[in-house]
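Appendix B. Extra example for self-study. Work through it before the problem class; the solution is given directly after the inputs so you can check yourself.
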Amino acid sequence: MSKKIDKKEFDEVIKSEKVVLVDFYADWCGPCRMLGPIMDEISKEHDVYKINVDEEEELAASFGIMSIPCVVFFKEGKEVNRFVGLRSKTEILDMLK
Amino acid sequence: MYDIIIIGAGPSGMTAALYALRANKKVLVLEALTYGGQIINTLRIDNYPAAPHISGVDFATNLYNQIMEMGCEFKFEKVVNIKDHTVITNENKYDGRAIIIATGATNKKLGLPLEDKFIGRGISYCATCDGNFYKGKVVAVNGGGNTAIEDAIYLSNICSKVYLIHRRDEFRASEVTVDELKNKENVEFILNSQITSLVGNDKLEKIIINNDRELVIDGLFVAIGQVPETNNFTNGLNLDESGYIVSDDMKTDIPGLYVCGDVRSKSLRQLTTAISDGAIAATCAINDINNKII
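Solution. Structure tokens for the complete assembly:
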């Protein structure tokens, strides 16, 4: 399962030396609800966290999130990649290669 | 060998699967992304008879669970070609006596440089999904159909200013919705106009209209229609001028190949007509199999 986190936890987890995926989502967003189970699948092999943009408006804004779902890839505290909108499991795993 | 292979798991494809499974056929559904199709973008469905206010995701999930309970085989693979009775995906090949194309349609893009770069960074194709990120900001909506006008009305209640850019001075949208938009004080119509370029560094900052007028905006919502998702497998199929697959009672010109839902050439693309198409396509396929026509 991808783990729901807040701003404080976010600041810590993105420091990881391994690539960390953060899924910015909202409960009212249809595509986000469809992406959820796909990200849960990805979390079996990778570190996946999720941020509710309604609860963490400032954090989402600071990363320029303007469309959701938006998944941002972090490594050692820096953004290394991102995608917006639904993607298949295969496509996401390809981005991690 | 499957009896019926269905390409695409939107409402139409999944309904076709439901009918085929109820006729005890061996069914495979192939889907490139996730089940549900475009309906998952709809927050609240209000024009589906007897199921008022259901969300698109709930509708899609109910239908998915319904076919899975009936023993549907479902694979997340992208179809790249159809040759006779063989469906070729990015991973495998499957043979089916009948093949139903239910691949749907997708939002038409502007076709301008930088468009892909700015998706999620100022460009959106879904006002109800992304509108809230533009609270109190200046946005533009491009298009003249019902979706564009409804998006502009929705955004006018959230944003400080909404420009409605349309290439003609007449609207395909219903008069009632256009009138409602005209009454909004923070909406400005820019008619007989086209967006000719997108400007910005990390995100969209400006758009140029008719190679002439510069408009500083925070967001652009594109609602200029749709294109059929026919990919590469339309060889030998009869298409209409917009690229949608022409059929007679869901049968294409090729025996054993059927079509249903938004990818089909038709006059009304709604949840109700998608469902209806799916039922008819599956029934045609079932009858052709039972009568040994295919």
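Self-check: The mean pLDDT of chain A is 96. If your reasoning did not lead you there, revisit section 3.
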